[in-house]
Structures are given as C-alpha cells and as structure tokens.
C-alpha cells in the first residue's frame, strides 16, 4: 500500500494488529470492542472540543473573548466543567419516580451512542455494516424522545412535564420532514445502507464530486434535513423547550450534578451524530471535495466536514432568535412537509429524465417555484411582511 | 396531624393536590419572577393560564422600593439630585434634567444657552444608548443569545466613556444643576462626540441588517401585544409605546422645553401598536437623535453654563408648586414639587414613565401565548428603579 | 423576505466573528486585572482630604467647617471640630478636625462635598479597588487614611489640581496684598502718630 493509502487505513491496520495479539476465537470480539472503545473515546472528546468551540465562537461573534483562563486559549474548560458537574450534589426530588429519574439520562446517552454505530467515518471504517443502516439510525433517534419523556414524567413537576410534552411534540413533528428528506438519498442510491450511500457519492466528474448536495433535489433535501436536525436536537432557533426558562425550566429542571452533565452530553452527541448522518447522506461522507485532494485521509475529511457542520450550527445559534412553539409546528407541517414530499417527486423525476442538462433545469425550476409560492402564501396568510413608517407633521 | 416523623409517615406522604378552579375551569397559575432570566429587574407577574393563553395577569412590583420620595422630603434640593440618577439608572442625565427643569420652574431660573446645548447633547446621547440597549434586551429575551445586546453595549460603552470624561461617572452622572450644568466641557469633548456620532449610523445599519427583515423576528413580533390608541391615551401611556400606536405626542414638540425648537427632527409614528412597531420606532428615533446631535454639535455657542442667580448651598425657593417634565427615552418623566419656603421640599413626586406604561400590561397580554408575555413585557422597556423608586 | 434576511443576519455575525481577530473595534474585551484601561482624568470615586507640605495632619486644608457633613446626601461624613486652634501650613491658627470619618460603604460618590467645600480641602480620588474582608471597620476611613498630599492630587487630576492651585495662590496673593495694605496703613498711622507732637488732652471743664 502506498503511504497515502496506509494513512487512510491506519486505524483499521491498528485494529487488526491489536486483534492479532489475541487467540483466534477471541479476535472478532476484540475487534468489535476496539471499535466501540474508539467511538466511546473519540466522540466525547469531540464533544468537549465542541463546547469550548461554541463558547468561544459565540463570544467572538459577540465581540468578546470566550473562556480563556483554563488551559491555553481555554481548551481545558470542559475539564473544569466536568469536575464541577461531578462534584455537585445529586438532588432527586422526594416524590420523583426514582428508577425512571435515574434511567432517563442513561437511555439518552445509550441511544445516542448506538446511533454512531452506522456512521461511516472513513473508508472501511464503519462499526456495523448494516444493510438497513438508515432505518436503524432513525429508529434509535426516536428513542431519544423516550428519554425526554421519562425525564419530564419522573420529575413529578408540572412544569417539567409541560416542557417535556412540548419538546416531544416538536421532535415528533420534525421526524417526518427529517425522514422524508433523507429518503431522496435512498431513492437515488437504491439502498438503505450508509456505506453504499457514501460510495455512490465517491465518484468525480473532472474535479467535482458526485455529492448529492450538488444536485437540485439533494440541495433542497439537505436544507430540509439541516432544519429538521436543528429541531430534533433542540438547537437554536428551535430551542424553545430548553430556552423557555420563563415559564418552564425545561424537562431537565430536576436534574443536577452528573445526571445533568449526561443530558448535556447526550444532547451534544445527538447533534454530532445527526450532523454526521447528514454528511453521510448529502455531503459525501468521507469523500474528498476535489479529486486532487484525495491524498488527505478519509477519516480526516469526515471530521473536517463534521467540524464545518458544528461551526454552522454555532453560527446559527449566535444569530437567530427563537421561534415560538406554535410557529415551529406550523413551519414543520405546513412548509417542510409539502416541500419534502415535492422533493421526493422531483428526485423521482430526476431519475427518469435521464442524463443531460434538462433535468437540472427542470428540477431546479420546480423546486424554486414551489419554495417561493409556498413561502409567500404562508407569510401572507399570517399577515407578516416588511412595513414602512410615517412621520408626524 | 401527626407530630412524629417516622418511616411510615414519609413513605405514605403524597403531595397535596392543588385545585385551582376559577369559573369552572382549571387555570394554571404561575408566578413569573421576581428572579427573571430576562434582565429588567426584580418584577413579578402573576399569570393565570388556560393552556397556553393568558387569562389574567397581575403585575407585582415594589421589590426595589428605596423611599426616594420620602428621602427627598428630608434632604435639600441639591442632595436629591444624585438620587435622581438612580431612578432610571440607564438614563441618569435625563432624570437630572427633568428634576432641574422642575426646580427651575419653581425658583424662576433661566438657563444660559451653552448649558441648554450641553443638556440637549447629553440627553440625545442618553436616548441613543437607551434605545440601543432596549432593542438588545428585547432580542435577548427572544433568544438571539445576546448577540445584538453585545453590539448595543459596544456602542453604549463609548457613550459611557464620554459621560465619564464629562461628569466623572459613567452612570450616576449628577451633572445638571438648577440653572445650568455643573462643570464646563473638557477640552476636545465635542470633537469626540462628533467622532462617535459619525460612527453611529453604521451601528444602526448593522443592527437593522441583522434584525429588521428577519423572518423569525417578524413572526414573533408582528401582531403581538397590540395596544390600541384610545386605550393608550386613556391610560396615560407616553413615549415610544404611545407613538407606536399612532398617536402623535412627543413632549419635545409639545412643550417646546429647552431649545428643541431650534433643531429639525421628525417624530416617527407606527400604525399597529405591536411589538414590531415599538422596536422600529426606537430605531427610527435613534436616527432622529443622531441628526439632532449633529446639529447641536455644530451650533453650540461659547458662554457661561450656570445662571448667576442660582445658589449651590442654602437654596430656598419661594412657596409654590411646579411640575417639570421632559421626553425621557422611556416616556414622560415628570417631577412635581411643592415648596414651603424651606430648604427641603414639602412634597416631591416622581411621575415614572415605566410604571404608567406598565398599567396596560394585562390588556396587552390577554389572549396571547405565555411565550409572548415576556416579549411584550420587554417591549414596554421598563427599568425597575423607576417603577419602584 | 423568505429567508434572505436570515442570510443577511448570518453575514453580519460572520463579519463580526472575522473582525474580532483583526480589529480592536470588534474585540472590545480588556482582560482585567492583567490589562487595564487608562483611567479617565475626571473620574470620581471616593473623597480624600488634601494636605499641603510634608506633615499630613498639620498641613490638612480642612478647617472643620462641617459644610460637607451638612450637604452630604447620605450623611456619610462624621466630623468633630477641635476646641483649640493650630497653625496651618502658612502658620495661621485655624480649627482642625479631630475626627474626620467617611464611611465609604455609604458614600455614593456624588461629589457634592467637593462642590460645597470653600477651602478646596476635600477632593475626589480615583482609587476604586478598596474591597476588604473586614466587615465592621474596613470601610470606615479616618483622618489618617483619608489624607493625601497635594502632589498626589496633581498626579491623579492634573488639570483640576492646577486650577485649584491657581485659585489658592490667587486668594493667598489677595490676602497678602490686603495684609500688606493694612500693615502699611497701620505703619503710616503709627508714623503720623509719632510725628505729631504730644499734645495735652483738651482741657474740659470738670463736671
């Protein structure tokens, strides 16, 4: 193998080498355990870096420094935060349902970690190569909602229950556009397996890649996926369940100390995993953006794209105000669902129109026209619009 | 009621069921505050909700009451001046000016021209930084994670630095005196104000690019918290809230106090009276303030800054009463003084615009979502120091 | 409409993010206490008593007239006037404060005491890092703690101190001129009294 290829497969080589030290009958188990350990180590580390990145990024957008006292440039801030949350008293309300209260963060973290199992992080680097990987990912994602409900219910606090209900309503409403927007990628690839979807995007025409995001239906699907992902992970501008501390302090009011840290971890890991999934579906997974950049290892490309996605999420958080609950739901059901369904139709038309520049024009025009018409109708229906002001005379 | 607390009692404890039945419905009663995540001060709202809609809202304040008016009865007129700084602590210079106007009416002082120009410059700078901060706070409550607030504070810091150079203190300025201003402008101050004013339109443009057409902002603010003009007039609302409903009432144009007649500026009016209108009126007023500042900086004459008749110590106005009011950034700030000939006022009353504007909070919030209550409250733009005094 | 304002907003934020690395306008943080902003000259924090000369207690300009105590709005100044008079910096006998306490936990830095003092004795300092762990007396400053020299006053408020010195010098010159004129008049009177011959008092008829 050339040097580039060996760098690309370095983790696989390492995994095989360590497993080779064990007897033959233990080797499959050891390989699996190594892969799991790698995921359990890498992604929480990325989570730690994400928290620092978020605080410093938000700070810089607001013309201030973020945390910069712990470690150089504040890199060790998550360590300080971790120590703080570990040493805080774990308060469980007296009338709370103890078992459910204890299990809720565990369910969240478990579900989120399971979702990492089908992400192809590099060439040949996927933990479980399932034929129905996409299916598995979304099924696991739904159990995140279960954990939120467990948290809200077990706290025996009417405000947390209300907050949990709201969060679940939001997440369920956005599951539908999320799935529908990812179905287009499946349609064109012809398989539910995440590795096959990435491989289908790994070709190049000239120097440009075959990523799905560079097609009209892929671009629309990607935008819809991103918006739905923001809503699924309760990020700004859809963070009403946790940001509305005016009335309801959120479904994790009654959590303190390490359990709160687990919720935080679960939420951010969910964000990472759904970002990774979006990268897999639309942004070419571990593929390079230009053919001459293929010498950079595939897993590095995946992490760079993940980093870009996280930065984009942080950018959105620093810019946009929050949507209200009913506006959120209106948006999901009245705008995103029709657009996602139309996108399916357009993707099908793309396939049947055959190769050529006509399909680009037709699909783009249909999607843009639908966007403008639908958007304008909805805004006019709610009587929103820019205004002009008069002056007294 | 058992007095022993043993394992059996603890295990058999069930929390009491709170029955809230009002007219047959079960209303959820929530107390929002006094610790607000949205930083307007210590203020409580007792809200009764039916699902998401507000059925009843009762504001409860008084957590910041500091006996300002009673202290003023025992202190001399001059000693009350630093206390007026602390009424609306964002806009100390306009508070000083309102009090100075009231006392000048009582005692019959005339203010020299240069002092009037200085008063206008400081008041308009105060108005700019107040409106910028008000918009920042409104967006902070809306969840824009503090970004517009930080931009507003960046400009506010520059203005506060100017105030510190002039008066010695950033927020508690204590600068106006009866009959003029306390101290002459430092060398180069007017030039610095000119430089700042030249940079302000860029800041307002940046804020507008960020916010005005923003669909999320429009969705949350348009049509929310509507105040009708006749209710506003009946309740005595003043300031940007009143002008957002469409009523043309700006005390600078009505009373012609100071030398505002010499400046050309327009009064923006809204049509709908919702949060979006109030926000836009504040932005437009900031632009008008910038134009006033530019005119004032150009025309400021040389001369004395105090009325020679006024005394610092031993000031005893003759018996009488006076009401002096100005267009403070939050509304009509008025001081009502009754003098009995001694060095302390017999009665000293502040007409706080924030408090009067809050009386219609319930009317604006009825039927709205509970998530909007905080936004409506933020759009009134109150400062608890003024509400509670 | 339809999403472009959100993109404009994102552009504004991105500009600020990028600008925070290059321009000082977009990164306004001053990392106190390692970095400090240069203090503005006119700043006022808490009052101090000014003395001339080398000896703080002898050179205090304060003559315990208690005007500042009366005018202080929160009444945080406590003065006890002396019973005797001591010579001040120029040698003239003056009253002096045997006790001059300011409770700076009450003081609201309004500067009214400075405005009403007729003797330029009390001025505002610029020191604000005065926190202490002593709850009960740590923030009650007495005469010794409050006395600051005129040179110190010049260093913190140069323009103001120059004006004050000019005013004091002018007053001193005026009093000296008046004293000189009075001394000359007295000397002239004594001279004329000595020059005229001793006259017998007018003979008045005894009642």
Helices and strands in order:
The complex is a heterotrimer of chains A (393), B (389) and C (207).
Chain A: H1 3-8, H2 10-20, H3 27-61, H4 77-86, H5 98-115, H6 133-154, H7 158-189, H8 194-200, E1 204-205, E2 208-209, H9 216-232, H10 240-243, H11 258-282, H12 298-319, H13 325-353, H14 357-381, E3 390-391
Antiparallel strand pairs in A: 1-2
Chain B: H1 7-11, E1 21-22, E2 25-26, E3 28-32, E4 44-50, E5 53-60, H2 68-74, H3 77-85, H4 92-107, H5 113-142, H6 147-167, E6 176-177, E7 180-181, H7 189-211, H8 215-221, H9 229-235, H10 240-245, H11 251-254, E8 268-269, H12 275-299, E9 320-328, E10 331-339, E11 345-351, H13 353-358, H14 361-365, H15 370-380, H16 384-388
Antiparallel strand pairs in B: 1-2, 3-4, 4-5, 6-7, 9-10, 10-11
Helix pairs in contact in B: 3-4, 4-5, 5-6, 5-12, 5-15, 6-7, 7-12
Chain C: H1 4-22, E1 47-51, H2 56-59, H3 67-71, E2 77-81, E3 86-87, E4 93-94, E5 97-103, H4 112-116, E6 122-124, E7 140-141, H5 143-146, E8 147-149, H6 150-156, H7 158-195
Helix pairs in contact in C: 6-7
Detailed description of the structure:
Chain A has 393 residues and is mainly alpha-helical. Chain A has one domain (7-381). Chain A has helices spanning 3-8, 10-20, 27-61, 77-86, 98-115, 133-154, 158-189, 194-200, 216-232, 240-243, 258-282, 298-319, 325-353, 357-381, and strands spanning 204-205, 208-209, 390-391. Chain A has a two-stranded antiparallel ribbon. Chain A is globular and about 80 Å long. By secondary structure, chain B is α+β, with helices and mostly antiparallel strands. Chain B folds into two domains: 7-60, no CATH class; 68-388, Cytochrome-c3 Hydrogenase, chain B. Chain B is 48% helix and 14% strand. In chain B, strand 6 (176-177) and strand 7 (180-181) form a beta hairpin. The radius of gyration of chain B is 23 Å and the shape is globular. The relative contact order of chain B is 0.18. Chain C has 207 residues and is an alpha+beta fold. Chain C has seven helices and eight strands. Chain C has helices spanning 4-22, 56-59, 67-71, 112-116, 143-146, 150-156, 158-195, and strands at residues 47-51, 77-81, 86-87, 93-94, 97-103, 122-124, 140-141, 147-149. The longest helix of chain C is centred in the last third of the chain and has 38 residues, at 158-195. Chain C is elongated and about 110 Å long. Chains A and B meet through helix 12, helix 13 and strand 3 of A and strand 3, helix 6, helix 8, strand 8 and helix 12 of B.
């Amino acid at each position: 193998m050339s040097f580039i290829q060996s760098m690309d497969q370095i983790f696989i080589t390492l995994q095989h080498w360590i497993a080779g030290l064990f007897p033959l009958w233990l080797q499959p188990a050891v390989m699996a355990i190594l892969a799991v350990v790698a995921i359990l180590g890498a992604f929480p580390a990325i989570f730690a870096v994400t928290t620092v990145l978020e605080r410093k990024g938000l700070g810089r957008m607001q013309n201030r420094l973020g945390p910069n006292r712990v470690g150089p440039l504040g890199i060790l801030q998550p360590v300080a935060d971790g120590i703080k949350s570990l040493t805080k008293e774990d308060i469980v309300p007296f009338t709370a349902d103890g078992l459910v209260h204890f299990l809720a963060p565990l369910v969240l973290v478990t579900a989120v970690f399971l979702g990492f199992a089908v992400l192809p992080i590099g060439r040949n680097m996927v933990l479980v190569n399932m034929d129905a990987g996409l299916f598995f990912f979304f099924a696991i994602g739904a159990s995140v909602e279960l954990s939120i409900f467990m948290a809200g219910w077990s706290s025996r606090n009417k405000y947390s229950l209300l907050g949990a209900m709201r969060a679940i309503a939001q997440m369920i409403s956005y599951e539908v556009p999320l799935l529908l927007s990812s179905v287009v990628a499946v349609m064109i690839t012809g398989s539910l397996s995440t590795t096959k979807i990435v491989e289908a995007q790994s070709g190049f025409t000239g120097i440009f890649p075959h990523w799905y995001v560079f097609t009209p239906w892929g671009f629309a699907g990607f935008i819809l996926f991103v918006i739905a992902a923001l809503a699924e992970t309760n990020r700004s501008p859809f963070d009403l369940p946790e940001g509305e501390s005016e009335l309801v302090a959120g479904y994790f009011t009654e959590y303190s100390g390490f359990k709160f840290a687990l919720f935080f971890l679960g939420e951010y890991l969910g964000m990472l995993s759904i970002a990774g999934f979006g990268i897999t579906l639309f942004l070419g997974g571990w593929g390079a953006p230009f053919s001459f950049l293929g010498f950079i290892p595939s897993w590095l490309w995946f992490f760079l794209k993940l980093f870009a996605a996280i930065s984009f999420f942080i950018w959105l958080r620093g810019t946009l105000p929050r949507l209200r609950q009913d506006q959120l739901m209106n948006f999901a059901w009245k705008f995103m669902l029709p657009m996602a369904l139309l996108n399916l139709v357009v993707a099908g038309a793309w396939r049947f129109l055959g190769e050529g520049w006509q399909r680009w024009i037709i699909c783009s025009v249909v999607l843009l026209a639908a966007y403008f018409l639908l958007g304008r109708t909805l805004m006019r229906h709610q009587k929103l619009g820019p205004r002009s002001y008069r002056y007294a005379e | 009621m058992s007095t022993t607390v043993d394992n059996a009692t603890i295990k058999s404890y069930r929390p009491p069921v709170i029955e809230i039945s009002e007219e047959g419905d079960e209303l959820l009663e929530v107390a929002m505050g006094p610790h607000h995540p949205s930083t307007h001060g210590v203020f409580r709202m007792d809200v009764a909700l039916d699902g998401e809609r507000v059925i009843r809202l009762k504001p409860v304040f008084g957590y910041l009451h500091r006996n300002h008016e009673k202290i003023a009865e025992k202190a001399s007129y001059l000693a009350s001046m630093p206390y007026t700084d602390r009424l609306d602590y964002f806009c100390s210079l306009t508070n000083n000016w309102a009090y100075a106007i009231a006392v000048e009416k009582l005692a019959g002082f005339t203010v020299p021209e240069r002092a009037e120009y200085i008063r206008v410059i400081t008041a308009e700078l105060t108005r700019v930084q107040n409106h910028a901060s008000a918009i920042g706070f409104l967006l902070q409550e809306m969840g824009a994670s503090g970004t517009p607030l930080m931009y507003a504070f960046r400009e506010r810091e520059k203005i506060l630095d100017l105030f510190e150079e002039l008066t010695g203190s950033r927020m508690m300025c204590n600068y106006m005196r009866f009959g003029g201003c306390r101290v002459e402008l430092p060398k180069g101050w007017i030039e610095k104000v000119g430089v700042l004013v030249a940079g302000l339109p860029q800041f307002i443009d940046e804020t507008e690019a960020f916010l005005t057409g923003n669909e999320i902002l429009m969705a949350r603010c348009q049509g929310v918290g509507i105040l009708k003009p006749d209710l506003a007039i009946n309740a005595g609302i003043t300031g940007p809230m009143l002008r957002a409903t469409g009523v043309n009432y700006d005390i600078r144009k009505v009373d012609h106090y100071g030398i505002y007649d010499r400046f050309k500026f327009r009064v923006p009016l809204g049509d709908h009276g919702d949060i979006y209108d109030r926000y836009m009126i504040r932005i437009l007023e900031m632009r008008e303030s910038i134009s006033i500042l530019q005119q004032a900086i150009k025309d400021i004459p040389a001369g004395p800054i105090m009325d020679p008749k006024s005394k610092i110590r031993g000031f005893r106005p003759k018996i009488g009463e006076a009401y002096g009011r100005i267009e403070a950034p939050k509304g009509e700030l008025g001081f009502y003084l009754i003098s009995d000939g001694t060095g302390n006022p017999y009665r000293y009353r502040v007409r706080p615009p924030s408090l009067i504007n809050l009386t219609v909070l319930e009317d604006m919030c009825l039927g709205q979502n509970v998530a909007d209550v905080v936004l409506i409250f933020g759009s009134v733009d109150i400062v608890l120091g003024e509400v509670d005094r | 409409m339809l999403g472009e304002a959100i993109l404009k907003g994102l552009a504004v934020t991105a500009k600020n993010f990028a600008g925070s690395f290059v321009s000082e306008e977009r990164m306004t943080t001053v990392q106190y206490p390692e970095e400090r902003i240069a203090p503005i000259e006119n700043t006022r924090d808490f009052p101090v008593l000014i003395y001339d000369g080398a000896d703080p207690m002898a050179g205090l300009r304060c003559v315990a007239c208690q005007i500042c105590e009366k005018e202080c709005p929160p009444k945080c100044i406590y003065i006890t006037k002396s019973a005797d008079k001591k010579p001040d910096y120029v040698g003239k006998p003056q009253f002096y404060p045997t006790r001059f306490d300011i409770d700076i936990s009450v003081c609201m830095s309004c500067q009214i005491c400075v405005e009403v003092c007729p003797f330029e004795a009390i001025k505002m300092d610029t020191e604000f890092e005065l926190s202490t762990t002593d709850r009960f007396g740590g923030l009650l400053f007495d005469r010794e703690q409050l006395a600051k020299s005129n040179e110190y006053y010049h260093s913190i408020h140069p323009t103001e101190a120059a004006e004050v010195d000019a005013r004091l010098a002018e007053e001193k010159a005026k009093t000296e001129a008046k004293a000189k004129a009075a001394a000359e008049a007295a000397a002239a009177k004594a001279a004329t009294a000595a020059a005229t011959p001793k006259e017998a008092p007018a003979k008045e008829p005894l009642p």
